[in-house]
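JOB MANIFEST
job_type = single_chain_structure
chain_count = 1
residues = 71
[input]
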Amino acid sequence: GDIMDKAVFLNEALRYINDLYEKQGQVGGVKHIILLGHSYGGMIARTAVLLTNHPKYLVQNIIQLITPNTR
């Protein structure tokens, strides 16, 4: 798949992780998640937070290692 497919999947995974925490009794689920992406993974993380299916207020920071950030 392309970067958009992977970004949509990442957001679905973030929501799933949050739901697991809520089911274990942690009120409000996960407090914060820090995404760490290397190269293409950094591009996926950057794209994921811009999509409409992104679980708002969940990702606190994105750390990108050797990720192209030019336009």
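[summary]
The longest strand covers residues 59-65.
The mean pLDDT is 93.
exit_status = 0
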